[in-house]
Each structure stands twice: as C-alpha cells, then as structure tokens.
Amino acid sequence: MTSSSTWAQDVITCDLCDNPTQQFYRRERLVFSSCASHPNQKCEGHCQQCDVPVCFRCLTGPHSGHTVKDMSEIVQQMKEEIKKETEEIEKFISRFALTGADIDQKISNLTEKFKTMEREGENLRKSWHEEVDSIFDTLQSTISKMKDRRLTTLRSHQSRLQDSGTKLARITKENKKILKSNKVSDVTSYKSELKEFRDIPTDVDVKIPSLNSNTVQGRELSIELEEFKATLTQISLSSLTDEVSILSVRKLLEKAKVIASIPSGIKPLGALVCTGTNETWAYGGDKFIRCIDIKGSLKEKITTECEPYPGDISVTRQGELIYSDSNSRTVNIVRRGRTETLITLPKGWHPLGLCCTRSGDLLVSMCIHDRSHHKIVRFQRQTAIQEIYKNDRGQNVFQGGKAGVCVEENNNGDICASDLGADTVIVMDKTGKVRFRYDGTPARRNNPFHPQIIATDSLSQIIITDFNNDCLHILDQKGQFLRCIDNCGLLSPGGLSVDSEGRLWVGCCFSGDIKVIQYME
C-alpha cells in the first residue's frame, strides 16, 4: 500500500490500482485487538456486512468490497452512549435517595397516625358496653393488619430502592472504568441494565383509612373502618343490649374445610348447641344430653325424664342449658346441675323447637297432640307475649303434619323457621309477618329439599341443614341463595350450631359424627 496525506486527511491507496481505500482516523491511542486471520495485524476496522473486526489485509481478502467502519469511530460512539446512560443513572441515584428519605417520613407519619387511631379505638371501647368488647378486639386486629400491610408496602419499596441504588452505584463504577479503558472488548461487551430501573416507581403512596364513629348516647353507637362496620342500636332506653347488629369483615371461603371430626357416640344424633368455642351440648335417641368438646371428650352428662328423648335444646345468654319435654309439656332449665321446670304449656300443646333470643326471650315452637296445628310462641320469663300461626289473610303459616317446626332468631330480630312438614324455610319479622319462604330450588340439588335445623351467624346469614342432599344451604338475611356446603362429608346432616369463633358444628344423624367446619375467612 502507498499513501498520500495532508495534516487534515489521510488518503490510503491500493498498491495495485492506486484507487482510494477505506479511511481510518485515530483520534486517541487505542489498543486494538489482534486479527484472528492475519498474525501481527491489528483490527482497526469493523466489517459492517459481516459484523466482525478486520485488519487492513482483510480488506483485500474475504472482506474485499465490504463496507468497513473505523473502529475508533465505533468506540467513540459507544463511549458517548455509555456517558449519556451513566449520567441518567446518576440522576436515578439522586432521585431514589430523595424518595427513600421521603418514605422514611411517610413511615413515621403513618405509624404515628395509626398509633392515634389505636388510642382512639381504645377510647371508643370505653363508651361501649362490655358485651361488645369483641367488636373492638376485631377492630384493633384490623388496624394492626392494615398498618402492617401498609408498612410492609412502604418498607418493601424502600428496600427495593436501596437495592436498586446499590446496584446502580456498582454499574456506575463499572461504567466509569469502561469509559477510562482503552480495551475495545471492554466497551463492545457492555450490556445495558438500565431498562429494569426505568420501570421502578420513584414514589409509592399508601392510603390511610379513616376511623369513623358515631356516638348518640342512649340511642346508637357505631364504628366503621373500611369494610369493618359495627353498630349497637338501642330499642328500649332501659337497656343497651336489646339489639346488637355486627357486620364484620368476614367473608365466605371459596371452599369450606373440616377442621375437626368428632365421634360423639350418639346414634342417631339429634340437635346441637355450642357453648363458647370448643364445646357443644348434643342429644340423640335417648334421655341423655351430653356436653362434648372438640377433641371428643365427654365433659358432662345430663339425665332427663324425657321419653324417648328431648324435643330440642338451647342455651340461655347466661350459658344455662334448657330443653323441651314433649310428653310432660314442659320447658326445663339446668342450673348448677339441677333441673327446674321453666314453662309448662297449656293442656293439648306440646313443645318442640327452642331458641333463646338475644333479648332474653324464649321462642318455643309447639304443636297440638295430633300435630295438625303448629305455632311459635314468644315467652318473656314464663309469660306468653306473642303467638305466630296465622298470616294477615288468616291462613296458617305452618303446614300441619307429623313433622315439627325448628326455630332460630337472626341478628336483625327476624324469626327463622324450618317447617319440616312443608320442606320449606319461613323467615318472619319480629311481628310474625312472613318476609320470604325458601324451598331450596335456587340450589339445584339432585334430591328434594328437606330442611332440618337452622342457624344464623354474625353476618346475619341463614344456614340450613338439608337432610336429603347431604349439604348445607347458606342464604343472606333477605333470602338470597349464596351457596351450598357440600364438600365436607356431611351424611344426613341434622344438628347445627355456630360457635363463638364463627365455625359451624354439624351433626351427622346416623353416624353420630360431629363436623367442625370453617366456612368464613
């Protein structure tokens, strides 16, 4: 090769034909890689067609006629890109640092506000009756969970920013080394990691809920925190305990689960009534009423005079067991291990279902001797103050027949009855006016609906055992069908009760097993 040149421009000509060849500028002293094809030659160019480094001798060989770019220009361009990217990274580092400090302040403010909310919750607790302490236990747990979730969000983002800052600092340090490096391979092997940081929000905000309360002394107390809501409404000025409506954050589980299966040894197994968290009273085909805990241990055994067995059982607000004796026409109460007659029905009428209401009244379903007529009577102490048996058109509310009527009160004061003779659930308001009837049709079961015992829960949902379909039906308080529980091995379910933790205790009639079911989260 020969060359003619000026200070401003070097023109390289071919030794064979004197035509100009590719020009190479040397703006800085670079350390070029050795050519893999031509020993002792440096790759000062880059073939654009083959995307490989080339030396001068390559241009007369396999890369003859190809477009070749000066390697120094490539290095310069890439260094410019790396410089710009490094400047952008440094801006991110600065922004992340400022955001991290801001999140520290938000954490402090959030913590202080939740502390204030917790103190406010404790102050509100003092203005409510002791009977609703459980509401505030739930409230404080909700606040704590809300605080923990929000703090976790902030701290997680803060940690992410810190980690990102550390990584960006490392990248910056490495990039600056590259910028100072003369090695082509250091520059050309650079892979950008900036994309992952561009999507990281530099700020995150968390909404702090408001704790709202309304206290009208002597009439209504209410408290609300997002989905948690609880109200206590007074019907009579003489007592704050006449009506309590609690709406909690609890929801139905997508799939109910059995958390305990208790062999009661009672066959057939009749009604159940829970006492507290881990115990239930139960009776079956004999004169005994047994108290069984969640481990299957017999805690107590009451001997009755009922022949052949009690009509129904319930528990008063004070935790005292009551039971009906159809033959003697009595409702009896067990106090300190001794049985006393609480109510004796008029001649010709026999007690069946029982329900102790939240106000302290007693609902008794009863029938005449041939069971052609049924009614529900409300007793205040020993005095009958209400009878439900006719609707406003003078028609019988309940169908006559051998089967009886089970009764339960809902949180809103509705009276829920299972009319076994009609295979129908009837829900009435406090005055006895029928609000709706449920015949099982919305559940679309294979066999005819055959309701037995009814229970209600803290959400005012109505739960019904369906003897024929081995399942439970769940309705809302307006009668809307919600779902069936049919995955818990409930064979011929009869007895049903809800414990203080909101779990269902379901008695399987023929096996005598009691299933404890978690159905709400």
Structure description:
By secondary structure, this protein is of the alpha+beta class. It has three domains: 1-66, no CATH class; 89-211; 252-520, TolB, C-terminal domain (Neuraminidase), CATH 2.120.10.30. It has four helices and 33 strands. The strands form nine sheets. It has a four-stranded antiparallel sheet with strand order 6-7-8-9, with helices on one face. α1 (71-127) packs antiparallel against α2 (133-180). The protein is elongated. The chain starts with a strand and ends with a strand. The model is unreliable at 1-10 and 235-248 (pLDDT under 50).
Q: Figure out the total of helices.
A: 4
Low-pLDDT ranges: 1-10, 235-248
The CATH superfamily of the largest domain turns out to be: TolB, C-terminal domain
- On the 0 to 100 scale, the average pLDDT is 85
What is the total tally of β strands? 33
Question: Order of strands across the biggest sheet?
Answer: 6-7-8-9
How far from one another are the termini? 86 Å
CATH C-level of the largest domain: Mainly Beta
Rg is 41 Å
- The percent range for strand residues is 35-45%
The helix fraction, in percent, is 10-25%
The coarse overall form would be elongated
What's the arrangement of secondary structure elements?
Layout: E1 2-5, E2 10-13, E3 45-47, E4 52-54, E5 68-70, H1 71-127, H2 133-180, H3 184-188, H4 195-198, E6 211-216, E7 220-225, E8 228-233, E9 243-247, E10 252-263, E11 269-275, E12 279-284, E13 288-293, E14 298-303, E15 313-315, E16 321-325, E17 330-335, E18 338-344, E19 349-356, E20 362-368, E21 374-380, E22 383-388, E23 405-409, E24 415-419, E25 424-428, E26 434-438, E27 451-456, E28 462-466, E29 471-475, E30 481-485, E31 493-498, E32 504-508, E33 513-520
Antiparallel strand pairs: 1-2, 3-4, 3-5, 6-7, 7-8, 8-9, 10-33, 11-12, 12-13, 13-14, 15-16, 16-17, 17-18, 19-20, 20-21, 21-22, 23-24, 24-25, 25-26, 27-28, 28-29, 29-30, 31-32, 32-33
Helix pairs in contact: 1-2
